[in-house]
Amino acid sequence: MIEIDHLTKRFSRHTAVDDISFEVGSGQVVGFLGPNGAGKTTTLRMLTGYLPPSSGFASVDGHDVFRDPLGARRKIGYLPESVPLYLDMRVREYLTFRGQIKGLRGRGLKRRLDEVLDQCGLQNVHRKMIKTLSKGYRQRVGIADALIHEPPLLILDEPTNGLDPNQIRSIRKLITRLGKKHTILVSTHILSEVAQLCNQIIIIDGGRIKAADTPANLVGQMRVAGRVTAEIKGPAEEIGAALQELKAVKKVSHELAKDGWEHFSIFVESSTDARERIANLARDKKWPLRSLSRHEATLEEVFVELTRKD
Amino acid sequence: MRTLLTLYAKELRSYFLSPFGWIVLAFTAIMQGVSLSTAMKILQDTPIADSLVYIVFHTPIFWFYFLFIFPLITMRLFAEEERSGTLETLLTAPVRTSQVVFSKYFAALSFYVILWIPAFVHFQLFSTLTNIPTPFTNGSLLGAFLIIFLMGVFYTAVGVLASSLTSSQIIAGIITICMLVIHYFLGFVTVIWGETSEAVGFFHYISCQEHLHFFAKGLIDSRPIVYNLSMAAIVLFLTHHIVDYRRWKR
Ligand SMILES: Nc1ncnc2c1ncn2[C@@H]1O[C@H](COP(=O)(O)OP(=O)(O)O)[C@@H](O)[C@H]1O
Ligand SMILES: [Mg+2]
């Protein structure tokens, strides 16, 4: 559905997007993840043909966004980051206008209007002026606009930005529902959102792609995944040395003892599980072992690990 | 074409949906009325060979309010879309930049034409209401309104251009009025510096005062028609490139 090939965008002295390439297949819901200033918006703007790239290629559903911008835009429903709307229009009037410039007419337009008003929960505000709507409703109007011409691809730039938790949940539900029919590329820096919504994640930082994979794979491959914590009773130094000797253990750190139990953090090579060896060691040495757990990495840790500045 | 019409209808309607459009309409209607009554007073006080139409378009306040119409009707067009960010939704919909430029231009020009309806009605009603034989010929009436329209064609394009240069309506308005005032004074060059310089022909050619002078006497000349139409085309062409270029640059 989306093909991006060596896309680069330089502003006067600053490279916002630096030679990125990725593909998004039909029917996927892809999270485009990165800290503020990573280049998400710039990438999405190039993909929608609003900004021309400095170099590189992008296409949507086979339409080159720069050679055939109109063809590509017909395939895209785009919700920009700031959700710009004509504030002195009424909801229905605005969506009618947007539908018309996207090529809808007459009965087809009317049918789609009713459908998107329904889908986005706008039925009871459709006669209101947009300037009187809350941020959450404006976001829905923006999504309704993106949907109106039934585009195969939805591009949503931080759709839950600035909403309260209830509004975030309802927008998230809406996006989940939309994901059944549309390919979606959604940019965000809220991690819990991505884990729930997306079956594919692209992490971008400083204009470069740091990782692109399914959420499960990303979490599985991370260094943090190889951390085991153990609570053992016995001589701390001796235990530390013995643990260090075990196969596949990279680093052992002793964290302060609590009520007589010594706490250890043990980093092992990822994709190995050292718990059994640790348990055997404790039994052989007759050191009581109270708990032994492998740390489940979260997306948040993945994100921090990939995008931190040190 | 249908896209162009949709965009055009939206732009034109927005003049009537905002109080600002009505204020501009009231402002010009009042100024046209003041022009007319000033002209009637002049005709009453002094014997004069010119027609009523000629005098109405040569009252002292005419150029003042006439030039101010253009920043008022055009400053919003692009500057406001740029400021509020709606240019992004507009230009990522399947529309061409040229359709956006033309729709805004023709909407502003249409509103401009509507602004002149009161003045036209004044002249039509004059003899009915006053029982005086019409103190002007149909030729001068036609000529005057033709050149008013032609200047509108050009100056509206200037306003659209200025609006595409900035995201501030005020600055767009100031740029428009400055450009129009400079153009206005260029028309006075031959009056100030005399007829001796080599470029005299050029300055006569572009002088809006002279155009109005002849057209309001019913002397219709093809050169001002060509001049205003081609200038409008050039300015709109520039506007189209500026709208694209400003995105490319940033
Ligand atoms: N119009 C612009 N002119 C200059 N620099 C810009 C412009 N837009 C964005 N940038 C810069 O490009 C970088 C990426 O911005 P952006 O794509 O908005 O990031 P994100 O959406 O991931 O927060 C930022 O450092 C930002 O300052
Ligand atoms: Mg952004």
List keywords for this structure.
heterodimer, A: 310 residues, alpha/beta, Rossmann fold, Alpha-Beta Plaits, 2 domains, 6-stranded mixed β-sheet, 4-stranded antiparallel β-sheet, B: 250 residues, mainly alpha, 14 helices, 81% helix, globular, binds adenosine-5'-diphosphate, binds magnesium ion
Describe the fold and architecture.
The complex is a heterodimer of chains A (310) and B (250). With 310 residues, chain A is α/β, with parallel strands linked by helices. Chain A has helices at residues 40-47, 69-74, 91-101, 106-119, 135-147, 165-178, 191-197, 215-221, 236-245, 275-285, 299-307; strands spanning 2-11, 14-24, 29-33, 55-60, 63-64, 76-79, 153-157, 183-188, 200-205, 208-213, 227-232, 249-258, 261-268, 289-294. In chain A, the strands form 3 sheets. A 6-stranded mixed β-sheet of chain A has the order 6-7-8-3-9-10, sandwiched between helices. In chain A, strands 2-1-4-5 form a 4-stranded antiparallel β-sheet. The mean pLDDT of chain A is 86. The model of chain B has no long low-confidence stretch (mean pLDDT 88). Classes of the chains: A alpha/beta (310), B mainly alpha (250). Bound molecules: adenosine-5'-diphosphate and magnesium ion (MG). Magnesium ion binds next to α1 of chain A. Residues 11, 14, 16, 34, 36-42 of chain A line the site of adenosine-5'-diphosphate.
The number of helical elements of chain A comes to 11
Q: How many strands in all of chain A?
A: 14
Summarize the helix and strand pattern of chain B as letters.
Answer: HHHHHHHHHHHHHH
Mean pLDDT of chain B equals 88
Unreliable stretches of chain B (pLDDT < 50, length at least 5) are none
Summing up helix and strand content along with how strands pair, one would put the structural category of chain B as: mainly alpha
Average of pLDDT of chain A = 86
Q: Count of DSSP helices of chain B?
A: 14
Are there runs of chain A of 5+ residues with pLDDT below 50, and where? none
The residue fraction in helices of chain B comes out at over 70%
Topology pattern of chain A, helix = H, strand = E: EEEHEEHEHHHEHEHEEHEHEEHEH
Share of helical residues of chain A: 25-40%
Which structural class should the secondary elements of chain A be placed in? alpha/beta
Ligands bound, unique: adenosine-5'-diphosphate, magnesium ion
Task: Provide the number of structural domains of chain A.
Answer: 2
What is the architecture of the largest domain in chain A at the second tier of CATH? 3-Layer(aba) Sandwich
